[in-house]
TrEMBL record:
<keyword id="KW-0812">Transmembrane</keyword>
<feature type="transmembrane region" description="Helical">
    <location>
        <begin position="95"/>
        <end position="115"/>
    </location>
</feature>
<feature type="transmembrane region" description="Helical">
    <location>
        <begin position="40"/>
        <end position="59"/>
    </location>
</feature>
<keyword id="KW-1133">Transmembrane helix</keyword>
<feature type="transmembrane region" description="Helical">
    <location>
        <begin position="7"/>
        <end position="28"/>
    </location>
</feature>
<protein>
    <recommendedName>
        <fullName>SRPBCC family protein</fullName>
    </recommendedName>
</protein>
<feature type="transmembrane region" description="Helical">
    <location>
        <begin position="71"/>
        <end position="89"/>
    </location>
</feature>
<keyword id="KW-0472">Membrane</keyword>
<dbReference type="InterPro" id="IPR023393">
    <property type="entry name" value="START-like_dom_sf"/>
</dbReference>
């Protein structure tokens, strides 16, 4: 598509929004500005608002509201996310997490700026308005740095009904045999880069036993059993085996056991659900430590629920397989 004179303002507006996004990313990511890096309201909430305001400011009103409020902010944000991924500034997981938030807030910023600018008669006043939007993230970042990250402890629970007795289910949860990828089925979390679960081993049965839960790409969690109630409950603490996890597996902002996120515990509970049926409950407890726990919690809750739900689905199929349940069916005594 040739760049004609009528398209120059459009490319200028998108280009300025893109340039501003990179400037904000590098400055706000510096520890002397905010030692929380990019997991701050200044970068994740206020910066996209400013991007939207800038694109709306530099695109003339003659271009129409659709281009000013939606199209230009959309392309500025998408180009920024694409370039951040292309140049390895952020991992795909982080891009997927912040993408929807950035787009929504960029549209909001363009709308708010336009509403305010339309009330101004002079061009200089509009320049002051957009300058205020652009400077706001750099003003709020040092202020945000004065507050510690709050700890938010959350629980994610999944339940599945299994047509098998508790004795069968118990044998399948204390150790989880290797899971082929095709048994898990497709999932969005695979597409955005989260490793698939592989297996869970157990050193010995009872309290003090250690499960090694392994995932793809060298990810391993050490799970120490501290509650062992056969046929009823299995609970364990969780610690990532940092010696086996390559630094490229997770982005620094989403690494398990890091300063922002950790998985603390896992629990299986077996509940009777009628003759030959068991209700299996799997829940985990996590810690979030960011200034945006409300948004991060949406993603961690979804990811943990998806991981747990897929594991439970595999366990149900295995427990309900004829070979798994045959040994648990009482045989008539010989006469």
């Amino acid at each position: 598509m040739p760049i004609t004179r009528t398209r120059v303002p459009y490319f200028l507006a998108v280009g300025i929004g893109l340039l501003y996004a990179f400037v904000a990313r590098f400055i706000l990511g510096e520890p002397f500005i905010n030692d929380n890096g990019l997991l701050t309201g200044s970068f994740l909430l206020i910066t996209p608002v400013a991007i939207g305001a800038l694109t709306a400011h530099y695109l003339p009103p003659t271009e129409g509201k659709w281009r000013r409020l939606v199209v230009a902010p959309f392309f500025a944000v998408m180009l920024f996310l694409f370039c951040a991924l292309l140049f390895h500034l952020e991992g795909f997981i982080c891009i997927a997490i912040i993408g929807p938030l950035y787009l929504l807030l960029a549209f909001f910023g363009a709308f708010i700026y336009s509403a305010i600018a339309d009330l101004q008669d002079k061009k200089d006043n509009k320049t002051l308005v957009v300058a205020a939007f652009a400077l706001l993230p750099f003003i709020t970042a040092p202020l945000e740095n004065q507050f510690n990250n709050p700890d938010d402890f959350r629980r994610v629970e999944n339940i599945v009904l299994i047509n098998a007795p508790a004795a069968v289910v118990w044998q399948h949860i204390i150790r989880v045999a290797p899971i082929p990828a095709q048994d898990l089925g497709p999932s969005l979390i695979d597409d955005i880069g989260f490793p698939r679960p592989i297996e869970a081993t157990l050193t010995h049965e009872g309290v003090g036993g250690v499960r090694h839960a392994t995932f793809e790409r060298g990810v391993e969690f050490i799970e120490t059993v501290d509650d062992w109630q056969p046929l009823r409950r299995l609970s364990f603490s969780i610690a990532p085996n940092t010696a086996t996890i390559p630094p490229t597996t997770f982005d620094e902002h989403v690494i398990v056991g890091g300063r922002f996120f950790d998985v603390l515990r896992g629990t299986y509970e077996l509940q009777p659900a009628g003759p030959g049926r068991t209700r299996l409950v799997l829940y985990s407890e996590q810690r979030l430590s960011t200034h945006l726990n409300w948004y991060a919690g949406l993603w961690t809750g979804y990811v943990m629920s998806e991981i747990q739900g897929r594991i439970l689905a595999v366990l149900r199929r295995r427990c309900e397989a004829p070979a798994a349940t045959a040994w648990a069916v009482p045989r008539p005594a010989r006469r």
